[in-house]
Amino acid sequence: MEEREIYLLITRYLQKQTNTTENEMLADWMTSSADNEQTFEEIKQAWLSVEKPNVSESANALSKLKNRIRQGTDQQIKTKKLFPLKWSRIAASLVLIGSLSFAIIFLAQSPKKSINVMNSLATKVGEMKTITLSDGTKISLGSKSILRYPVKFEENERSIQLDGEAYFEVSKNPHKPFVVNTNDLSVKVLGTHFNVNASKNQVFTTVSLLEGKVEVNLNDDQDGAYTLKPGEELSVNRNNLQVFQRKLDSVSVLGWMTKTLVFSNDKLSDAAVKIENMYGVKLVFADQATADTRLYAQFNNDKLDDVLEIICSTGNLIYSKNGNKIYLSAK
To answer: Where would I find the Protein FecR C-terminal domain in this sequence (predicted)?
Structure first.
């Protein structure tokens, strides 16, 4: 991704203007290197410094970002001859910094301007992270997911944004509901334990309630809210908006947290999503018949090769590896 493009993407993200695909692109870029994470933090600090009407603080944050980019361009000049395209990239970066400077100083000088400062947490494929929010709510973030949350919650509501999968242990507050927003639905609670799976690589967005009570509202449904009781889950088909409410299997729902996989007559193509997220690989099927192979199995923190061996022995399949890709076909 071009340097100018990533700067623009970060600023759009900080303004809550990005979609799920862009969020995933940004997460991949952020988690690919420590240098990228540092760049993101410096841009975020420069942008978010507008919360305090202090031009000096804004200028300091921006100066740090400028110096970082200048160091990079100076190194390019020393190591190799710059072609016109390189000059264009540098110029574009400087133009963007100029735009950021104007926005930051203008907003910092407006004492009536107030923004809700947002933080973000992202995970790579096969990675899990845990965070405790300012209200005491504990969140476990699943593989290849992004959590966007405020430094300080609003007066009447605690609201966060999720792209991917997470398990929530919400701190109880009867006067301030906790709301989880995804692209398909929102979940409103006062204090409870539940799991939300809004991963892009799955057809269904699912809310699973382990404890307490939640209210689920579909973004494109005007029929009202769905109420879940402990031991129930609600799944929404993104393609046709069909809603399914049923009893849940807690072992299966929380398997991603304990590296437990449970498959009960699942198609291998559906099971592949969980395997890919847990082990950071990509399963490739030789044909549709292989993808439709039914699977009955349970794995508890098993090695990937052991999982593949059992899948192949029960489904009369064979597999081969090429990097992080796993190729499966009939014997």
So the answer is: 261-328
Nearest to 69 by CA among 48, 49, 46: 46
Q: What is the CATH number of domain 259-330?
A: 3.55.50.30
Which ranges in the chain belong to alpha helices (H)?
3-14, 20-31, 34-48, 55-79, 84-108, 250-253, 255-258, 268-279, 288-291, 304-315
Q: Which helix (H) or strand (E) holds 205?
A: strand 204-211
Amino acid occupying residue 17: Q
Residue 320's SS3 state is strand
Q: Ramachandran region of residue 2, left (φ > 0), alpha (ψ -120 to 50) or beta?
A: beta
pTM as predicted: 0.64
Concatenated DSSP letters of 234-284 = EEEETTT--EEEEE--HHHHTHHHHTEEEEEEEEHHHHHHHHHHHHT-EEE
Give, as one character, the DSSP assignment of residue 287. S
**Is residue 138 over pLDDT 50?**
yes
Q: What percent of the chain has pLDDT over 70?
A: 76
Measured distance CA(297)–CA(260) in Å, rounded: 11
Across the chain, mean pLDDT equals 80
pLDDT of residue 159: 93
Listed in sequence order, the residues at least 6 apart from 43 whose beta carbon sits closer than 8 Å to its beta carbon are: 7, 10, 11, 14, 65, 100
